[in-house]
Amino acid sequence: MRDGARLKADVFRPRSGGRFPVIASLAAYMKDKLWVPPPDLEEKPNPYMNWETPNPLWWVPRGYALVRIDSRGSGKSPGLTDPWSASESRDYYDGIEWAGRQSWSNGRVGLNGISYFAMVQWLVANLKPPSLKAMIPWEGAADMYRDFGYHGGIFSFGFVVNWYNNHMAHHLLGKPQASAPDAFSKPWVWEYMRHNLDSDWYHGRRADWDRIDVPLYSAGNWSGMGLHLRGNVEGYARAASRHKKLRIHAGTHYHPFYSNEGRMDQLRFLDYWLKGIDTGIMREPPVKLLIRKGGHGNYAWRAENEWPLARTRWTKFYLMPDARPGRDGAEGGLAAEAPRKRTSVSYPASGMTKAGVASASWTSTALAGSLPRMGVSFETAPLECDTEVTGPAVLVLWVSSSTEDMDIFATIRNIDPDGADVFELGQQSQPVPVAKGWLRASQRKLDAGLTLPYRPYHVHDERQWLKSGEPVKVEVEIWPTCMVFRKGHRIRLDIQPRDGTGSAPYTHYSADYNSGTNTVHAGASRASYLLLPVIPAR
Question: Is 101 exposed, middle or buried (0-12, 13-18, 19+ CB in 10 A)?
Answer without folding.
Answer: exposed
